[in-house]
């Protein structure tokens, strides 16, 4: 007998919740059960516009979703400043937690969330969708091959997009009371995660923010860069910005090989994604070209990466609910390491671009 689908509630009607609502519908082991907003009318409108089943419940508060006994798990796309309150309450109500990134304003807040999650034995996962794309697993195979890639030496990650004026003035990501981490928390989170992923989640020894980040009038970061350093000589750099053309580049360099991709956060196409690799690269005899040339690799998927994220999260929740399994600790561990590096970058900026130990 097939297990019943995991029933999701959503706290809030943020734009990103439209994408994740669709992902919950597409995932074969999940269903939309409820949505809550501070306004009943807004919640009803969101449910109607985003294809919620007729059986889904609509609430005029977040608390009502958490009090619904039919809800197994909640997706929380609220502003980062509200995460600790609602994530802790969700865990206390025994709701499994899919939390939008950045997961907290700092590690101290995140530890409060993770303590509640651990105490209630509920599954936690952040919403870093590209981690679940099958391309990510294919790239890891290359990076893990000592003959083809060798030893990791450097990583460069860049995520920028040119936000419109309305975004720069009104979006929650530029408001100090809502998402005080700005571009560092939004785009920088992805850059830091990609660097840690490439280094098998070995934390760097030190972090150094680069000079001249861009702030808005309220003091929120609109663009910044940083370098990361490991004791064994590995280095990494990243740049994140709300002020430059859409770019999602990742370059990973080893002693034998190099990996490149240009859409690491969101693939150019929903159901196929590519990356290029080069191994033992050199020049032609007259130095007029490369030999061997880099090779392109394409990975296809039946489900978009956000649906694969929901599918995996729901599988873990189902294992707990139906099989008595314990929560998978991998995902909160990865979230915490990402937050640790993010905190170090922020502290380096605040200290006048001093080197900060992680």
Automatic annotation (TrEMBL):
GO molecular function: nucleotide binding
Database matches in PANTHER family: OS10G0403700 PROTEIN, PTHR46368
Boundaries of every GFO/IDH/MocA-like oxidoreductase domain copy: 146-259
The protein's name: Oxidoreductase
InterPro entries named among the record's database cross-references: Gfo/Idh/MocA-like_OxRdtase_N, GFO_IDH_MocA-like_dom, NAD(P)-bd_dom_sf
Family per similarity comment: Belongs to the Gfo/Idh/MocA family.
Domain Gfo/Idh/MocA-like oxidoreductase N-terminal residue range list: 6-125
Xref: Pfam families: GFO_IDH_MocA (PF01408), GFO_IDH_MocA_C3 (PF22725)
């Amino acid at each position: 007998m097939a297990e019943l689908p995991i029933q999701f509630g959503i706290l809030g009607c943020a734009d990103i919740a439209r994408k994740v609502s669709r992902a919950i519908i597409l995932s074969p082991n999940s269903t939309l059960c409820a949505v809550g907003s501070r306004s009943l009318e807004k919640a009803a409108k969101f449910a109607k516009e985003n294809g919620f089943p007729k059986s889904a419940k609509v609430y005029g508060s977040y608390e009502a979703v958490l009090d619904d006994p039919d809800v197994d798990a909640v997706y929380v796309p609220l502003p980062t400043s509200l995460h600790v309150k609602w994530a802790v309450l969700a865990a206390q109500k025994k709701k499994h937690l899919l939390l939008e990134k950045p997961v907290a304003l700092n590690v101290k807040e995140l530890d409060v969330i993770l303590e509640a999650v651990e105490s209630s034995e509920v599954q936690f996962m952040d919403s870093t969708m590209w981690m679940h794309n099958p391309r990510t697993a294919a790239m890891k195979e290359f990076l893990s091959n000592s003959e083809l890639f060798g030893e990791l030496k450097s990583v460069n990650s860049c995520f920028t997009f040119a936000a419109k004026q309305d975004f720069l003035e009104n979006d929650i990501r530029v408001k100090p009371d809502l998402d005080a981490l700005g571009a560092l928390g939004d785009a920088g989170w992805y850059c830091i995660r990609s660097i840690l992923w490439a280094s098998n989640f070995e934390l760097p020894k030190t972090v150094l923010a680069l000079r001249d980040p861009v702030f808005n009038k309220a003091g929120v970061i609109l663009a910044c860069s940083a370098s990361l350093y490991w004791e064994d000589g590995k280095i990494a750099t990243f740049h994140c910005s709300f002020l430059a053309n859409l770019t999602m580049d990742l370059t990973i360099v080893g002693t034998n090989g190099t990996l490149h991709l240009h859409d690491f956060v969101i693939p150019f196409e929903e159901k196929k994604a590519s990356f290029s690799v080069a191994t033992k690269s050199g020049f032609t005899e007259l130095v007029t070209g490369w030999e061997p040339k880099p090779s392109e690799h394409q990975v296809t998927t039946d489900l978009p990466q956000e649906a694969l994220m929901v599918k995996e999260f729901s599988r873990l929740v189902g294992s707990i609910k139906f099989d008595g399994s314990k929560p998978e600790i991998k995902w909160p561990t990865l979230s915490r390491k990402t937050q640790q590096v993010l905190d170090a970058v922020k502290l380096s900026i605040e200290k006048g671009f001093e080197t900060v130990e992680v």
